[in-house]
Amino acid sequence: MESSDIRDELTDILVTEKEIQDKLRELAARIDEDYAGKDVLLVGVLKGAVMVMADLARSLCGHVQMDWMAVSSYGAGTKSSGVVQIRKDLDSDLTNRHVLIVEDIIDSGLTLSWLLENFESRGAASIEVCALLRKPDAAKVQIDCKYVGFDIPNEFVVGYGLDFAERYRNLRDVAVLAPHVYS
Ligand code: XMP
Ligand code: MG
């Protein structure tokens, strides 16, 4: 499919590139203040959080390290299976680390609640979550997320790292995927 057709596969643009960048700078300023004098370990959840991590990390002024975890709970569909599998574990030891999990989106919250429980058992000094997007109406478990970019409606979204069947991650905005694409 030609890239010029991509816009026909989207309905609304929910969050623009400019809104994302402004919000990430705002969150980064809060994070810098909250972690002043501390080394932060940013843990990006692959693959959706790649863009958030890249832009958030570059807006931070303090010392950070980055690590990555790959988990899967979705397969090729648009609904969480609730079954989380580790595809790639962290390289870092979390003992006594200040961990900030960087996520693209909190949907049902199932993935993060599983990750938080998993990380808590590894002896971190602190664990917080930064998520660019959150769908309050889709929550199946409550997640204590300290840094949230945008609350969005309960629709399947793509772009800025978020995919449907590995496509659309390269879009600069976050948009609603047209139902005709997946139904
Ligand atoms: P849960 O439901 O466990 O979501 O909070 C976990 C992961 O699923 C992906 N996800 C989405 N991906 N559009 C996407 O492209 C969406 O609307 C969406 N909702 C969830 C995402 O990777 C999230 O971390
Ligand atoms: Mg994700």
Structure description:
With 183 residues, this protein is an alpha/beta fold. It has one domain: Rossmann fold (3-Layer(aba) Sandwich). 23% of the residues lie in helices and 30% in strands. It contains four helices and nine strands. It has helices at residues 17-34, 50-59, 110-120, 179-182; strands spanning 10-15, 40-46, 64-72, 85-88, 98-106, 126-134, 147-151, 157-158, 174-177. A six-stranded mixed beta sheet has the order 4-3-2-5-6-7, sandwiched between helices. A three-stranded antiparallel beta sheet has the order 1-9-8. Strand 5 (98-106), helix 3 (110-120) and strand 6 form a beta-alpha-beta unit. The model has no long low-confidence stretch (mean pLDDT 93). Bound molecules: xanthosine-5'-monophosphate (XMP) and magnesium ion (MG). Residues 45, 48-49, 103-104 line the site of magnesium ion.
Low-confidence stretches: none
Question: What is the strand content?
Answer: 25-35%
Q: What is the CATH C-level name?
A: Alpha Beta
Q: What helical percentage do the residues reach?
A: 10-25%
Main pleated-sheet profile: 6 strands, mixed
Number of distinct helices: 4
Rg computed from alpha carbons, rounded to a whole number of angstroms: 16 Å
At CATH's second level, what is the architecture?
Answer: 3-Layer(aba) Sandwich
- The overall strand count is 9
- Main structural class: alpha/beta
Question: Regarding quaternary structure, how should these chains be classified?
Answer: single chain
- Determine the mean pLDDT: 93
Tell me the count of domains. 1
Distance between the termini: 18 Å
Principal-axis shape equals globular
Family: Belongs to the purine/pyrimidine phosphoribosyltransferase family.
Organism: Labedella endophytica
Catalytic activity: GMP + diphosphate = guanine + 5-phospho-alpha-D-ribose 1-diphosphate; IMP + diphosphate = hypoxanthine + 5-phospho-alpha-D-ribose 1-diphosphate
EC number: 2.4.2.8
